[in-house]
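Need the bound structure for coenzyme A, inputs here:
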Amino acid sequence: MARSQRQHNKRMNPFDRLADRHRNRPKIDASQGHSIAFSRSTTRRLMELIDANSQGNVHGGAIMRMVDEAAAVVAIKHSRNPSVVTARVETFNFLAPAFIGDLVSVHCELQYVGRTSMEVSVEVTAEDLITREIRKIASSYVIYVALDENRQPTPVPPLIPADEEEATIIKQARLRREHRKQIDDALKNH
Ligand SMILES: CC(C)(COP(=O)(O)OP(=O)(O)OC[C@H]1O[C@@H](n2cnc3c(N)ncnc32)[C@H](O)[C@@H]1OP(=O)(O)O)[C@@H](O)C(=O)NCCC(=O)NCCS
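Answer from helper R.:
Posting the output first, comments after.
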């Protein structure tokens, strides 16, 4: 970005800057696919008092918010589109509690891409920074849809496996998606 443009952006108020950023998006070639590794991402945060529930553990909602934010990062990185919306939280399993003072890490990777939708697999761990014990505390699948300037679903790049391991992950995710569609259709007709 040119220096004068940067100075101009600095002078804008944050709302105009945000609107400007969305208006002047670079054109993305949606036919150019990416691997799973391209967008894989981990978000970490130390759990503080503000994250507590009434029992003094970490509130489930605090973990859910972290998951939604962390998984969206993956969808944005893959699609290179800042306008992705959460369409569905497919599953959300709480496996063990997290405690104030734990370092919570949300590990996210894209496993399935449709035309405009992206399914992110999420694994959440909590680390006791003193004992260094790491526990798996939650898992989830979250589906995002990319939107264009008119807030309509817009195509995203395909997911291209980089190796055999990625190919297997994508194949399993496709089976999962087909299975879910069958359940959705059965429930609709019920
Ligand atoms: C998600 C949303 C954009 C989908 O709009 P829509 O008009 O139903 O879009 P379409 O029917 O064309 O579907 C678009 C894609 O989304 C997928 N999709 C839509 N709803 C879905 C759901 N509930 N679960 C899984 N996938 C879904 C479709 O399968 C399709 O995928 P594909 O293009 O990869 O085949 C719309 O429902 C919406 O805006 N929801 C609110 C999102 C929101 O506010 N989230 C919370 C804050 S971020």
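Comments: The mean pLDDT is 93. The chain is about 35% helix and 25% strand.
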